[in-house]
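Give me the fold.
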Amino acid sequence: MDFSLLKNIISQNNSFIITSHVNPDADAIGSELALYFILKKLNKEVRVINHSQTPSFLSFLDSDNVIEKFEPGQHSEMLNNADVLFALDLNQCNRLVSMEKSFCNSKAIKVCIDHHQDPGDFADHYFIDTNVSATGELIYDFIKETSIVDFDYDIALQIYAAIMTDTGSFKYDRTTPNVHRIVAHLLELGVNPTYVYDQIYDQSKFGKIKLLGGSLASIELFASGQIAVMVVPQKMLQETKTLEADIDGFVNFCLAIENVKIGLLFIELKNGMKISFRSKGKIPVNKLAAEFGGGGHTNAAGTRLFDGSINDLKQKVIKAAEKYLSEEN
């Protein structure tokens, strides 16, 4: 990957805006803030603006409240007048939601840094590697290969959170020897893995635990126990006073059931629904998600739909998923 081009884009411009996908996870937030700290070290003008509010369990990464929530009247002109726009941890412009129009219509140079498959055509420059564990790993590689700035604790914390979460605490397939070498370096820079894990996973609000209980109780098995389906209706979110972001990671419990090869999570939103897809082995749930307008990785993907009921779509998605069970090598 030609990181020298990325270094040149940064050195030759002065004002930057960084953004990421709707409902950002730790890879999105961590990658954004790591890049923010790089640019600040270079005395650049930089702002981080997202469609979604930062989830409470990731607020420790943004202790200075750098990240702004997009307001069209306040931010649209900024996006148009910036020299460079960065889209991190996404490769489809529609995942910017309310920011999509302002981002795509901007006269700025647009740069995509990501690790997902099947990118859309919305940026001027793409720095994509689908083999890395996280977008945060790409940010690490960029610093390492170009020496654009020195590593420090602030950058290391962000990259560690990105990699730790996107590897499922170092249990997913992309947990390579190189990932462990990177993490060793980040720990040497002062990152405390116990602290990061505690902040992300062990500081849940009571409502989130109640939501998890209801979500687990909803699980049903199909296809002779090879497909597990979890459903979170809007009513459950309202009763537990929780948000969509609180459901992050719930779908993985489907794969914790013996013999289950595909996990499906249906979340009823106020204006449609979200479906998360997970799989084991070589079952390509990104292709399954693509049948319903989504995408992602081989073993982790998602989509958002705005028509139809959960009950109707559930049957269609399960039927489609069964094909991938029979095609598994």
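The chain is about 40% helix and 20% strand.
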